[in-house]
Every structure is written in C-alpha cells, then in structure tokens.
Amino acid sequence: MGTVDAERLDGLSINLGRIAARRVLAHLAAVSPRSAPSPALIATAWTDQTMSAPGAALRMLISRLRRNLNSDIEESAIVSGLGGYRLSSEVDVDVRDFEERVALSRGSIPDHQCVRVLSGALRLWRGPPYEGFEGLIFESDGRRIQDLRLEAVDRYQRILIQMGRAREGLKYLRECREDNPLHEGLAALLVMTHYSLGERTTALREFEILRRSLREDLGLNPSPELRSLHSEILQQASITDVRVRPEPTGDSARRARLIVSVVTAAVSTELKPAGNLQHQGTDRLVTTLAQRAETCAMVGHWQTAADHYLEAIERALQTDDTDRAARLCMRLARITWDPELGDVVIRTLRKLLGRDPAPVLAAQMRICVAGGAFRTGAEAASFTSPAEFLSDLDTIAEAGTHAELAWALMRARDAMTGSLHPRDTLALSRRVERLSNADALIRGQNLRATFADLLRLGQRGAALRVARRIEDQTTHPEAAVDSFGRLTLRNCWNLAVGRFESVQRDLAASLEFRGRLSSATLDQVVLGQSYWLSRELGDIPNLESHLEGALAVAERDATTPLWSLAAAVLATDIGRPDQALELVRRCRRSFNLLAMSPGSHHTGLLSMTAEVLAVASLSGLEVDRELAEGLRHQLEADPNAGVLLGWPTVFMGAKERFTGFAALAAGDVPGARRHLLRARHEDRHMAPLARRSRQVLESI
Q1: What is the largest CA-CA distance in the chain?
Q2: Are the beta carbons of 321 and 313 closer than 8 angstroms?
Q3: Cβ atoms 501, 524 nearer than 8 A
Q4: Is the pLDDT of residue 266 over 60?
Q5: Which of 212, 246, 279, 566 is most buried, by the most CB atoms less than 10 A from its CB?
Q6: Beta-bridge partners for 13
Q7: Three-state SS string across 388-417, please?
Q8: 3-class SS letters over 145-174
Q9: pLDDT tens for residues 279-310?
Q10: Bridge partner residues of 14 (DSSP)
Q11: What is the structure's pLDDT at 499?
C-alpha cells in the first residue's frame, strides 16, 4: 500500500537499496503467491536501459534483497524455482492481506464480526498501491485493490448505518471520497450517512456538491438512483425506507425496467459534446460512466450497464486510450450473455488489437475474443486453437496479475469446452481455484463450470458436493449474473433428481430476470428448463406450446440445429413420432449431424437425435440406420460420461442411455439392452433419468 517499503517484525524499516530492488519486490508482491519469471522481473527492474548481462544482474539484486529481508524469518524471503522467483509464504504482503480480509467479509459472518474484519482491512490502507511505479503489472493489480477498497468502504459503512454506528465509518468514507470525488456510490453513501445521523442539511449539501461537480466537470446530472435518494430526503422519509441502489425483485421488476430506460436516456442526452472536454475531463467522464455501469451490472441491469460501458469505451477511444478502452471491453464481456452484444465487444476488441497494445493486454484480448461467455466451444474453435490459447495463457501468467490470469483461464476453458476432454477443462477450473481469487463472480462462475465438467465425467457425488458449496457460498452484495447462474445450476440438479416443486419455484424466480437478460439466454435457459419440467410432469398442453415456440425459434435462428432437434424431441413427447422424424430429416438437409464442430452442445445434439430415431423405430417407422450407426460410434467415442445441454442448462443423464437409443435405431437390440442396463445403473440415484432407460428396456 502506498510507497513500496518493507518493515521488520519489530516495526523498524528495512533498507531496500536502489529503485530497481524496490520495483522487483513490488512485482513479486503483485503476483504473490505465484512465481514471477526472470525475464518479467528484468523488464520491471530496468525499464529504461539494456543490461549486458541481465540474468547475472538480477541474481545479484535478488541476493542483496534476500540479505536485507531474511533476518526475521527462518527460510529465505525470496524463493527460487521454475525459472523465476516468488515471495516466501512467511512474508506478509499488505495488499494480499487486504484482499483476504475483504474476501472474508463477503461470507456468512455476523455484522459485528464483519465490521471488525473490514476495519482491520481499511487500517492497512496507506495510499494507492505501488505508488510512484509505472507498468502494466502495477496498474492492473493497483486498480483491482482500489476497487476492493471501494467495496470494503461501501460494505463497512452500510453495516454501521444498520447498527446505528454510522459516525464510526465517516473517517474512512471521507478519505475514500476525497480520492474518488465523482464516485456517485460513495457520494450517495455519504449523503445517507449524514441523514442517518440526523444531519439532514449536511446530507443535502453533500448532494449539491456532487451535482455541481458532475455538471460543471462532466456535463452530467446525478444518476436516477441518487436523485431518488435526494427526493426521499427532501420528503424526510424514514431512514429504513431510503435506498441507494435499485433492488428489482418481485413486483418491483417492472419499475426497475422503467428506471433502466430513464438511466439510458439520461446518459445519452446529458453528455456535452466531446470537443468541449479536455483530456483530463474525458478521463473523469470515462471513470464515472464505468462506475455507473458497474452499479447497474451489480443489480442485474445488464443492458443499461452495457450502454454505459459502450459510451465509456467510445469516450476512451476519442483520446486514443487504447488500453483503457480494451479493459472496459473486457469488463463488459464479463456480464454479456447476449450474442448480438458479444459481437459488438468482439468487433471493438479486434479493432483495438490492431493498435498494438501491450503483449499481456493483447493476450487477454485475444482470449476474450475467442472465449467470451456468449460463445460456445464450436464458435470459439473457428477463431483460435488450444495451442494459441496456451501460449497466451503463458504470457499472462508471466506478466499479469493473478486476477487477470484467473479471468483468462476461465475464458479459455469456456471456449474449449467440447473441444477438449472434460478432464482438461476441469484442470483449468482447478487451476483457477488454486489462485484463491477474491472476485466473487470468478469464484461463482468457476464453481459452476466445475459442476458441469464433473457431471460430464459422471462424477455425480463430486458434482453434488460442488453444488452444496455454491449454495453455501454467499456474497454481499452478490452480482445479479451470479444469482441467475445459481438458480440455473439448482434447477439443473433438481430436474435430474425429481424435485419438481423446487424447479417450479426457481423457474418463477428466474423469470424475474426478464428485461435484464437477453431473450436468447432466456430462451435457452429458462424456456429450456421449463420444457424439461413439462416433460417430466406429462403436461401435454404445455409441451404443445413449447413445440410451437421451438419451431418459431428454429425458423428465426438458422445457425444451429439445436432448436429443430429440440422441436423433434418435443414432437416425440406428445406422441407425434412421424413429425419428429420429418424434423430430423429437414435438419439434416441444413446440417451434417455426423460432422458437427465440437462445442458445449455437441453431445446433447447427438443424444437428442438418437432419442428421436429410437422412438420412431419403436413406433414402427423406418429410420435412417446409417445415421443411427454414425451417432452410436460418435457417442461411444465421446469423452463425456454424462450429457449436459448447455452450461448447465439441463443434465440429460448418462451417455450410455443415448448410445443405447442409437444402437436400438440401428437395429442392434442386444447392444441397446447392454447400454441401457448400464445407463439405468449410472442414473440409479436420479429417478426421472433412470425411468427413461427402464421404459425403453421394458419395450424391447
């Protein structure tokens, strides 16, 4: 924190020597507990000169640092290994200590304990991390730690307000506010603090200070949420009724969508022309728009968040700030599940890649282009290869922060799902987990991906343990994108084990995201799970409605066989095997079902086709046995033990069942029986899935 220095256990300062030594120590702190490769440390230590023997110079520098640091610990303060160096686990790094305390405050701990943890974290703050040092590694980790400080101050003060101890946090809140004078969230919290203390006049004055600064410096009015807070204070509302952030749940979702449209209109109409702003003003404007985007993303107003991000990106580009525009693009990609918006992100990142960004940033951008959450493995495969992914990951591991590496690993894993064996993508998830990242969104998404891969590998018990970890893990505040993912995973599991009442309840909760989530995502996740629920309940009228919907989506989206095959399965469910078979034939005229690119839907599409052919065969219809045999061979060679459609949209059960369906359609009844018996055993703890295998076994 602040200037880079070191102290002994007794509080006495340690002489670190020249600036190069301080820079190397700061680099080791930024990547701790990982190792930093020697070339990266050399580039950090001597930024403006070329060394004749850089390796020897680095070894001498590390040796001097060790002598200075080693007096208080038993092992060497700087440990060698794997072509680089790392700090010993006995060295206490304040930025990592700060990060761990903030992460602890997100857990399910009592308010008084949370206050104590956050107070300890905020006492560590001595100024912006790595103060005075330039370089991507310091900028990236420093910016992340400053974001954690904002989170810590926000949570600390809100809890104190609830406990009636708001004055205790004013010191930290004002210090943070002085460092971020245009941050609307901090301003709103300061207004709320004074109002809770009975200082209404001071609260109104703080609002006016921010309003004037925003207007004069950036040409913006305060956000609708802040204006609403101001109105409630003018009306002298009870402090328990005052809200700083919108909380769109239940009946208030419609009102939240109205607020979204107001925010969008405000941003689009209240900006002064860019020509009237100096570079510094534009920088502050970009910061304010990015902060508004983060606030909207937190409560699930993703479309509004995207509008703010895109505006901030455009403003950054007007000042040729390529690196900042790229980082904003990648932050937008974190909340983007909409393929159309994802294409905007990709086009922007490609344009920025042509501007020669720093190598580590370029590596992050390439992985983001290929591995955004809006892309399946099949789509990503057309952009890059696993070898290119691994090369870029090595670049980020060498020169990026552990948070940047965690995000890159997640995107690479998402892009390669289906292209690699589930064991390999699971290994990437394990690698993310070992980084012990404090970002709640990373942890949540990584656990869900781990859950999905374990189901694909047939490790049901391990998957259930991960599901329980996700249920037990709470964050304050929890990002809305994380909430939706949690509901999706829970429905996936509850459908498989037959807890249909729970599925109905959670589907109703999922629909609350309508208007905030893209329609494509709702189609795939919510409507897809609703269909599987209707299937299990034997709700024919609802299945007929779903069939009409699937046919309409298939007509609209001709890029994938998913919806046509889903419609075919629906037709078999309502007793129309002839229509189902015709849909498969029509689908084959547009897609080669035996030569599909690998991706997250690959095994599911093969399985649905096999099921339709099996039902048609049992109904006495003539099926394409060559197609059935091809499906059987592909399914037998598929590395997945379980079939997961989407990530995790729904778990379809053991792959053996669908291999048996393909064998049955191909005319191999003994082979079908063997596969179905194994499927019934594998799905024995999942009654709805085991029942399907038993029903077909009884019919043959």
Answers
A1: 87
A2: no
A3: no
A4: no
A5: 566
A6: 7
A7: HHHHHHHHHHHHCCHHHHHHHHHHHHHHHE
A8: HHHHHHHHHHHHHHHHHHCCCHHHHHHHHH
A9: 556 778 888 888 888 877 766 677 778 888 98
A10: 6
A11: 92
Answer yes or no: is pLDDT of 419 > 90.
no
The DSSP annotation for 618-674 comes to HTT----HHHHHHHHHHHHH-S-SEEEETTTTEEEEEHHHHHHHHHHHTT-HHHHHH
Amino acid at the residue 173: L
For residues 600 and 646, the answer to whether their CB atoms sit within 8 Å is: yes
pLDDT of 374 strictly over 90: no
Q: Is residue 416 within 8 Å of 600, Cβ to Cβ?
A: no
For residues 337 and 521, is the Cβ–Cβ distance under 8 A? yes
Provide the token pair at 252.
């208030």
Closest residue by Cα to residue 105 from 118, 122, 123, 119: 118
Please name the residues in contact with 677: beta carbons below 8 A apart, sequence gap of 6 or more: 693, 697
Which pLDDT tens digit goes with each residue over 66-87? 887 776 555 678 888 767 888 8
In the predicted model, is pLDDT for residue 251 greater than 50? no
Contacts of 455 (CB under 8 A, 6+ apart): 463, 642, 644, 648, 651
User: With contact defined as beta carbons under 8 Å apart, do 457 and 422 qualify?
Assistant: yes
Q: How far apart are CA 598 and CA 192, in angstroms?
A: 53
Rounded Cα–Cα distance for residues 464 and 376 (Å): 24
Structure tokens at 33: 């507990």
Residues 6+ apart with CB under 8 A from 263: 223, 224, 292, 296, 301, 304, 307, 308
Angle between helices 359-371 and 322-334 (to 10 degrees): 30
Average pLDDT, the chain: 82
- Provide the 10 A C-beta neighbour count for residue 8: 12
Beta bridge partners of 81: 84
- The fraction of the chain above a pLDDT of 90, given in percent, is 24
Burial of 421 (C-beta count, 10 Å sphere; 0-12/13-18/19+): middle
Q: How far is CA 56 from CA 50, 61, 67, 110, 317, in A?
A: 13, 9, 17, 52, 42
Residues 6+ apart with CB under 8 A from 124: 1, 94, 97, 98, 101
Q: What's CA 510's distance to the chain center, in Å?
A: 18
Place of tokens 């009228």: 541
**214-224 per-position pLDDT tens digit:** 888 778 888 87
Locate all alpha helices (DSSP H) within 17-135, ordered by sequence. 19-31, 38-45, 54-69, 94-105, 111-123
CB 467 within 8 A of CB 452: no
- Per-residue pLDDT reduced to its tens digit, 551-608: 988 888 777 888 899 999 999 999 999 999 999 999 999 999 898 776 668 899 999 9
Exposed e or buried b per residue across 533-564, where buried means at least 16 C-beta atoms within 10 angstroms of its C-beta:
bbbbeebeebbbebbebbbebbeeeeebbbbb
Top pLDDT among 366 and 251 is at 366
> Does residue 101 contact residue 109 with C-beta atoms inside 8 Å?
no
Q: In degrees, to the nearest 5, what angle opens at C-alpha 223 toward C-alphas 151 and 99? A: 10
Rg (CA), the chain: 28
| Predicted pLDDT of residue 475 | 55
